[in-house]
UniProtKB/TrEMBL annotation:
Molecular function in Gene Ontology: electron transfer activity; heme binding; metal ion binding
Record-linked InterPro entries: Cyt_c-like_dom (IPR009056), Cyt_c-like_dom_sf (IPR036909), Cytochrome_c-type_DH (IPR051459)
Occurrences of domain Cytochrome c (ranges): 50-151, 195-308
Pfam families: Cytochrome_CBB3
Name of the featured protein: C-type cytochrome
Signal peptide stretch: none
Gene3D superfamilies referenced in this protein's UniProt entry, alphabetically: Cytochrome c-like domain
Keywords tagged on the record: Heme, Iron, Metal-binding
Length: 324
């Protein structure tokens, strides 16, 4: 008997020591660093008007919600209030052309490495920022051209990026499950818009990454094989709106009872462009894709109706009040 207690006592002490050592390790290591991947990105020449227009549209759809500061009117960053409180305080960085406080001193290759993998030029892993793994090279070049342009959003702004204040939980996640995405060798070429289903697939996993929010959970999303994410496009991912209130992403597969199988193309276009769904106004963080073209909404409709239908009746959590 005594022997057993001694063994159990020993195991318990060992378990406590392991937990304490892990906690000290996480606390000391903080947010991990990684080798910066070498991206073969040619410096982007001053953009032609069509390229700048595309860049503006992509930045407005996929970067501005986090990086645009309403006070400065520039992409100078601000605290993200729609991240879970348990993560601590998270701040989007200043990505204006300021060489000291923005990204004016970053090379295009460094920006592309960060966009695709999450690893910054200083090797620090950038948290929360999505990874644009399959965005086409053409789209990435348009984003770069916009960041280098004369647009008021990107004018040098001397506001320093706020230090991150990650909670212990976020640090623990960053040392275990939250990892940079490996660089997928290019070239990354988008299908022709006339190839509607293939183009819609590109929009969902590459350009706008709808699948990230609309699959079951960020933690089970598969960045390298998005279609293998748990509950792909079936919704139910627990997100937070601009007021910090819980909001579940919705089922956007073609299931007739619980998805968008009975919707018309015009209803989908209205949900995307003006945030008006047959269920009522859509809350943040669902972006408003105000400049989406007819070709894009038609392709999204064709693709979403073609994916495996999932039955997932997502409750409309809390009153659907428009927040943007
Ligand atoms: C969900 C919010 C979110 C979105 C969307 C987002 N970012 Fe970020 N971004 C962040 C956060 C947060 C940081 C700071 C992360 C850190 O320091 O750990 C960041 C950091 C960066 C940095 C590094 C700057 C620095 O000095 O460290 C660049 C460059 C950047 N973002 C560009 C972009 C571009 C371009 C887009 C759109 C294509 C984009 N981001 C979309 C949240 C976001
Ligand atoms: C940052 C997360 C996020 C991204 C990215 C996102 N969505 Fe959403 N989406 C949501 C949330 C959250 C809701 C639910 C809003 C509500 O209930 O008020 C929603 C709602 C919707 C709805 C309404 C469905 C219904 O039943 O009313 C459609 C359609 C939709 N999204 C399609 C898309 C498409 C297509 C894309 C990509 C082009 C996309 N979403 C990108 C978070 C996101």
């Amino acid at each position: 008997m005594k022997q057993i207690f001694r063994i159990l006592g020993g195991l318990l002490t060992l378990a406590v020591v392991v937990v304490v050592v892990f906690a000290l390790y996480v606390q000391a290591r903080g947010i991990p660093r990684y080798t910066v991947p070498q991206v073969a990105a040619a410096a982007v020449a001053p953009g032609a008007p069509a390229q700048l227009a595309l860049g503006e549209k992509l930045v407005q759809a996929s970067c501005a919600d986090c990086h645009l500061n309403q006070q400065t009117g520039r992409l100078s960053g601000h605290q993200l209030l729609d991240t879970p409180k348990e993560f601590g305080a998270v701040y989007a960085a200043n990505i204006t052309q300021d060489p000291a406080h923005g990204i004016g001193a970053w090379t295009d290759a460094e920006i592309v490495a960060l966009l695709r993998t999450g690893i910054g030029r200083d090797q620090r892993y950038r948290l929360i920022m999505p990874h644009f793994v399959y965005m086409s090279d053409e789209d990435v070049q348009a984003v770069l051209a916009f960041l280098h342009s004369g647009h008021p959003w990107v004018k040098a702004d001397p506001t320093p990026s706020h230090e991150q204040e990650p909670s212990f939980l976020l640090k623990a996640l960053a040392n275990t499950v939250m990892k940079p995405t490996p660089l997928v060798p290019g070239p990354h070429v988008a299908p022709a818009p006339t190839d509607t289903v293939a183009y819609g697939h590109y929009l969902v996993v590459g350009r706008y990454q709808c699948y990230e929010c609309h699959s079951h959970d960020f933690k089970t999303n598969n960045a390298l094989h998005p279609e293998q994410s748990a509950g792909y496009l079936g919704g139910g991912n627990a997100l937070v709106d601009a007021q910090g209130q819980p909001v579940l992403s919705r089922n956007i597969t073609g299931d007739r009872a619980t998805g968008i199988g009975t919707w018309t193309p015009a209803q989908l276009a209205a949900a995307l462009r003006v945030g008006q769904s047959p269920h009522g106004p859509l809350r943040a963080p669902m972006p408003k894709y105000t400049t989406m073209t007819d070709a894009e909404t038609a392709a999204l409709y064709a693709y979403l109706q073609s994916v495996p239908k999932l039955t997932n009746n997502v409750p409309l959590s809390s009153p659907a009040v428009a927040t943007r």
